[in-house]
Amino acid sequence: MKYIILIITFFFTSNTYAKNINISVKSDLVLNCKFEKVIIKNLEHNFVSFTNDQIKRENLKSLKIIAKIPDILIIDNLSKFINKINLEVKISNKDIILIQAFDQERNYSESAVYTRSTGELIHEITRKINSEEKEKDISFYSCIKNNQDT
């Protein structure tokens, strides 16, 4: 868990526009992910954690992750936003799959980190990036594979 938080922290605090694509491991995954908890930061909550029995969230069924060397990474069924936009960051290696996408105004973003060894998926949504009232929704899922990496 610390490893994931370190990656996310580094990723979001880094302001460089270096190469944001690194596909070193090919994958063809279909995952079923059970919602575990969410951390919410908005005007009402300041990084408050809610478990799956405190807040209603859908599980992710048939989350598809397709990675092809050298630069193709397709994520399907994570969110409507991710389904329709080009990913800005695409990383797939033996440990993690990491993605991030922004809207045109760069005022909304979604990112996700999937850890292969644990099956943990973290999906972060950030709204109002350019304002002082920035909102975050960080969802945690436990995923099982419907198929194996190829």
Written overview of the protein:
The protein is mainly beta. The protein has one domain (23-145). Helices cover 11% and strands 51% of the residues. Strands 1, 2, 3, 4, 5, 6, 7, 8, 9 and 10 form a ten-stranded mixed beta sheet that branches. A hairpin with a 3-residue loop joins strand 4 (60-68) and strand 5 (72-76). The longest helix is centred in the N-terminal third of the chain and has 12 residues, at 2-13. The protein is globular, with a radius of gyration of 15 Å. The relative contact order is 0.25.
Overview in brief:
The protein has 150 residues and is mainly β. The chain has helices at residues 2-13, 80-84; strands at 21-23, 27-41, 46-51, 60-68, 72-76, 89-92, 96-102, 108-115, 120-127, 135-145.
Coarse shape: globular
Q: Would you tell me the overall average pLDDT?
A: 88
Number of domains: 1
Between the first and last Cα atoms, what is the distance in angstroms?
A: 26 Å
Parts with pLDDT < 50 across at least 5 consecutive residues: 10-18
Number of contiguous helices: 2
Sheet having the most strands: 10 strands, mixed
Number of strands: 10
SS-based class: mainly beta
- Provide the gyration radius in Å: 15 Å
